[in-house]
């Protein structure tokens, strides 16, 4: 595979962009080799600068749920851009977007648009603090909520691969207000609440974690968090930046039937444009400025081009329930096919899956939190990643990320991925022996 153009671009990039990338995980540090520079994408495929084609199993980290260059989204973007890309004033599109989100996400009564998932989570905890008058928050080891200071403590995703889950630059004052518990451990949460009575403003959780690989909540875990929050006057925040509109039209909360006070959204709501949102109970959301005193603002918030793209995709997801059936079936086929290939070889590596999120963990332990996720053989994952890439399958370049399938994958693509997985296993296991 010739990747000369990517090699040259990376050399140029490293001179002018820290690490050569605009987001750390893209640098391939966890898997070796060097990143591919992508020139275009269509449907299920990415094309790099050298013209190589890859089946995309990340889909821009989630947003491209219906595949790349999806025609209704492109048309909506072009129409909106022709009217000028930004006004910095209220628009009809924002109202339609808010109405659509409220109609789809069960616990959201009011919503505020921002520009990224990070902004959404930062704003949500500020709001929870303003609402409760308390300072501390609980987050879970290996969960990632963007790069706000309060969240870069025991963080997953790229932070887990760069060896900096607790980022330098976060002040001790900020860090002391973030309390950490293992994912899926209700007793640890109870212990923190007992240790800091009436001091905890919010519990923020990925209802299905995707930033330590795909890790599912144990039965009763989310309801347990809900009950603890109700008992102790704590705001429950579901970070549905990944799971929102992916696991169901109403996200993980619809799928599990557990409803938070606040929800953070991103990725899919922008259809590939930079968007985030936070929303929830009216009583809490009305504390946001200018109806309330909790300040939050944004020059480009509710940007018309981003709203148009998001509306095009959300309308499709709301109106066409066959899409979710297709996503479930894709996830099932990949899971069964790939698991079958592991079993045929007597390999007991763990696979986790829900809907169209899944991944293979190179550990024999059941993976239910960050400690078990970290038991993976990361070198083996790196070899697997490279072996899949050589076979034209583009995975997230880290063990601590979920796969995100798109509905654009054909039966042929699914079989290609399963065959690539089988061949990659043979290659890396032979190398190991
Ligand atoms: C669960 C979760 N929350 C928040 C974020 C932050 O979103 P963004 O990268 O758009 O700032 C991400 C992804 O990065 C995420 O996966
Ligand atoms: N896990 C992150 C978001 O989903 C990966 C994207 C990034 O950090 O660039």
Features:
14 strands, Aspartate Aminotransferase, domain 2, alpha/beta, Aspartate Aminotransferase, domain 1, 7-stranded mixed beta sheet, binds the ligand N[C@H](C=O)CCC(=O)O, 4-stranded mixed beta sheet, binds pyridoxal-5'-phosphate, single chain, 433 residues, PyrdxlP-dep_Trfase, EC 5.4.3.8, cytoplasm, 2 domains, 40% helix
Structure characterization notes:
With 433 residues, this protein is an alpha/beta fold. It has two domains: 4-69 and 321-432, Aspartate Aminotransferase, domain 1; 71-319, Type I PLP-dependent aspartate aminotransferase-like (Major domain) (Aspartate Aminotransferase, domain 2). The chain is 40% helix and 14% strand. It is built from 15 helices and 14 strands. Strands 4-10-9-8-7-5-6 form a seven-stranded mixed beta sheet, sandwiched between helices. The chain has a four-stranded mixed beta sheet with strand order 1-2-3-13. A hairpin with a 4-residue loop joins β2 (45-48) and β3. α3 (92-104) packs parallel to α11 (304-319), α7 runs parallel beside α8 and α12 runs parallel beside α15 (411-432). The model has no long low-confidence stretch (mean pLDDT 96). Pyridoxal-5'-phosphate (PLP) binds at residues 116-118, 121, 144-146, 206, 210-211, 239, 241-242, 266, 276. The site of ligand LHPZP3FS has 9 residues, from loops.
Itemize the secondary structure elements and their pairings.
Elements: H1 4-16, E1 38-42, E2 45-48, E3 53-56, H2 71-82, H3 92-104, E4 110-114, H4 117-132, E5 136-140, H5 158-161, H6 172-175, E6 178-181, H7 186-195, E7 200-205, H8 221-232, E8 235-239, H9 251-256, E9 262-266, E10 276-280, H10 282-285, H11 304-319, H12 322-344, E11 350-354, E12 357-361, H13 370-373, H14 378-390, E13 393-394, E14 403-404, H15 411-432
